[in-house]
Amino acid sequence: METGLFLGVLAWLASMFSWWHMPTWAKRWSLNHFVITDMVMAGLTYYTMAQFSKSIASMVATVVAGMLMNFTMMALGTNMMREYLGLENPVHVPLRTRINNRIGRK
Description:
By secondary structure, the protein is an all-alpha fold. 79% of the residues lie in helices and 0% in strands.
């Protein structure tokens, strides 16, 4: 049990370090679709853990890492954290305004 908790925390830390180095558009997408991100991360974690641990520890690690990732994505998805990280959501900005901002027109 303790091994699974430890492996789960390590897997969560590794996924968060990987997330911080992703491009901004990928971070924004993952925050907008955190359930899909959580499912993909849980699948990758289970696959990775099952490669070196054939016991219940790999399942416990997957559950712990998945829960921590889900809580982290929900916390990072708040408007305050988006502004802090510089990941404001451009979905609510009209397309014409985004195009004009990109080419430098007002």
